[in-house]
Amino acid sequence: MNSYIHPTSVIDEGALVGEGVSIWHFCHLMPGCSIGNFCIIGQNVFIDTAVKIGNGVKVQNNVSIYKGVIIEDEVFLGPSMVFTNVSNPRSFINRKSEFKATLVRRGATIGANATIICGVEIGEYAMVGAGAVVTKDILPFALVKGNPSMQIGWVSEAGMQLHFKENQMIAECPQSKIRYELIESRLIKLTD
Asked: Measured between alpha carbons, how far is 179 from 192 in angstroms, rounded to an integer?
């Protein structure tokens, strides 16, 4: 399956683009970045050198993904969300040797206008609310919002908020009917 690249986008030599990828208007992919299969890259997206993006990722409009960011499979990056890669930037001091890695695990969602401060890990299937400012690691399946972001609950793999009855540690996804258990402040997907 071929990929679609809009003619206004710039794909530098050495950028790797997988099969079935759609890259829309005014994007720029730098040399050495890699995009997995079946990704959608919205308008005005910048992908820096050495960035790795997995399969099935959706990057909405106006997102810049800087060196040091790794995006696993099936991640959703909302419109105008922001990644950083240095903790204390100054225009007059070169701190490229101080870039911190940021890892977004499989299936995570980052909402519109959220900001991800470098050096964090966002767990599998976690959900970051729109406008949140993430300053520390987020657990798998955690639902966070606010500035700075705080965990306010749990979500299923399908992205539905889970509701636990009083004194019960098991909840069922209202969409998929898959059950999840809270064990020592971590959410575990149960298999039958």
From this structure: 9
